[in-house]
Each structure stands twice: as structure tokens, then as C-alpha cells.
Amino acid sequence: MFVFSNRGKLSGIVTTTDLALQFNLLARPFLQIGECERQLRQLLDKTFASTELVDASRYGKKNGDTGAAAMTLGEIKIFLSKPDNWKKLGVTLPREVVVDWVGEVGDLRNRIAHFKSDADDIHDELLQVRTLTEWVRTLL
Hints:
Number of strands: 2
Number of helices: 7
Structural class: mainly alpha
Order of helices and strands: EEHHHHHHH
Strand order of the largest sheet: 1-2
Strand content: 5-15%
Radius of gyration: 20 Å
């Protein structure tokens, strides 16, 4: 696509590569956080009864969701912060570390969803999202 100045003079072009790079900058954080959420939900579904998870959700019963699909990241954080749930999960990392980790992913997700973060500002946080996702995969 050609780009023209206000005076009608050719000032540049936008290529498909430019569009692909911009799409990657905008979409990658959503995709990575979505994958992290899916992995966390798989872990919960594998470990807990569907009714336990839906009961821990504010909206699950209203929406007809089942299992961990009914839970937001904030609800997953609260659910994992309970000592009995953590014990049942059988994870060796300290509960507080993982709960904080999930909370940071949730905070990042909310900032991105409400366009309150710049792609350049979240590189380190996306690395944490990938690390959490990979750790959860080792538990599945």
C-alpha cells in the first residue's frame, strides 16, 4: 500500500511484512497468555472435580461452563492459594511463588486487554508467561 502525505506526495509504503510484524506485536501477547490459561485449566481439570472448580467461580454456573473453563485467572489464583487445594495439586514449588506467578499473568492479561501496556514494555513479563506455561506443561 502506498502512503501519501497531506499534500498528495508519495511518502512511503506499507508492505505485507510490515503488517505481519505489527500483527505479531499485537497478537503474540494475547496468544501466549491464552496458552498459559489453557495449560493452567488443563492442570486443574486433571486434578480436581469439575464441581469443585465451577463452585470456585462466580460466573461458571450462570454461563454453563464446566470445570476450570468456568474460572477466570483471578479465580484460579484464589483457588490455588488455598492450602488444601495446593496440597491436592501435589506441587513441590512453594504455593506463594506459583500464586504470585499466576497473579502476575492475570495482571498482564488485564493490562493488555485494556490496552494499558506497550509491546516494548512487556517483553520480560511475556518471558515469565512462557516460563509458567512450560512449567505447567511439565505437570501434565
